[in-house]
Design a protein that fits this description.
The chain has 340 residues and is α/β, with parallel strands linked by helices. The chain contains 14 helices and twelve strands. A six-stranded parallel beta sheet has the order 2-1-3-4-5-6, with helices on both faces. Strand 5, helix 6 and strand 6 form a beta-alpha-beta unit. The longest helix is centred in the first third of the chain and has 17 residues. It is globular, with a radius of gyration of 20 Å.
Length: 340
């Protein structure tokens, strides 16, 4: 197939970790023998001008490449711009914030409904997200399938924690807890920090940056590593014993899955995608607003095996190669004019 990839997130020179999950699927589709052209945004800066550029690039690419199918990531704006760029069949993946935008904003809901009606198929990265999309846009119910972004099992694989700690400069005794992501209210980082402090054992590292950085600084046993490149993430996960992602809501939970693939136990939210792949042997699911429950979850996860082979086994069902094969089948059905 000739596939035109349209995405508002894609790794670029200044943002190599932006939308890595999109690039991973693209790579696997190319490995499976398909020809791909892309129109993407590869930077966080630029405001709406970068989306205007995406509209222009998508239209130019469609005229020159003449795709069999257009594969867009995010409903609006990428999916919407894809509907304007080409008359080829459209498949679009919803990732989370795009669905929340449609739920909260009437204009964006109208634009999302247009994308859904135009699409041959819609992909949601979790059953939780599919349900929320269908609540906002009932038309999605007849054409939405669940396929997550998958995890690269070769890149995220078990390795010695001592070597990884030396590599990233992690020092401290006891259980090594890691939180990976934006330091924001949605990621629930302050409640995690308080639960860790009340438990009183081990070390907690936050990898990422965001508006709550100042509120986390100077706390005993807690260190802030700041933002790291996506290439450094596997080492940070390998240096930990437990990955913590107790977000107030997590449409999928890629960091949680990457940690499981690395044979690390996890603490994850019950609100969103993690309920669909975190098993009792691989980690602990928690009500993100229950601080006592979160403190208990840290202890339960710390008591699981190190390394955790059950976590690695559970992640195997979400190999990016398997997910790419599922996406491939959806794209092929779109080209043939078929729906699931």
């Amino acid at each position: 197939m000739r596939i035109l990839l349209v995405s508002q997130m894609y790794p670029g020179p200044d943002d190599p970790d932006l939308g890595v999950f999109v690039a991973n699927l693209e790579r696997e589709l190319a490995t499976r023998g398909h020809e791909l052209e892309r129109a993407v945004v590869d930077r966080r800066t630029g405001g709406w001008s970068r989306h205007l550029a995406l509209a222009r690039d998508a239209r130019r690419a469609a005229r020159k490449f003449r795709p069999d199918v257009v594969y867009a990531h995010f409903l609006v704006p990428a999916g919407f711009l894809a509907t304007l760029a080409s008359r080829a069949p459209l498949v679009v993946t919803a990732h989370g914030q795009d669905v929340e935008n449609a739920r909260r904003n009437r204009a964006l809901r109208v634009a999302t409904r247009h994308v859904v009606r135009r699409a041959s198929a819609v992909v949601a990265v979790s059953h939780w997200l599919r349900d929320r999309l269908e609540e906002a846009v009932p038309e999605a119910a007849a054409k939405t399938e669940v396929v997550d972004c998958g995890v690269d099992l070769e890149r995220f694989a078990p390795r010695d924690s001592g070597e990884a700690r030396a590599e990233v400069g992690w020092h401290g005794d006891g259980t090594a807890f890691l939180c990976l992501g934006t330091l924001s209210e949605r990621k629930n980082v302050l409640r995690l920090a308080r639960a860790f402090e009340r438990r009183g054992e081990g070390t907690l590292r936050f990898v990422g940056d965001g508006p709550l950085r100042e509120a986390l600084e100077g706390r005993p046993g807690i260190e802030l590593a700041g933002r790291v490149t996506h290439d450094e993430v596997p080492a940070w996960i390998a240096a930990s014993d437990v990955l913590c992602q107790p977000s107030l809501a997590e449409p999928f939970g890629l960091a949680t899955l990457e940690a499981m693939a690395s044979a690390r136990s996890v603490v994850a939210t019950r609100v969103g995608g993690p309920t669909e792949f975190v098993t009792p042997e691989s980690g602990v699911l928690v009500d993100p607003e229950d601080e006592d429950g979160l403190r208990s979850a840290l202890s339960q996860a710390a008591a699981l095996p190190r390394p955790n082979g059950a976590a690695r086994a559970a992640a195997g069902d979400h190999d990016v190669k398997l997910q790419a094969a599922r996406v491939e089948a959806i794209l092929e059905r779109a080209v043939r004019g078929l729906r699931a």
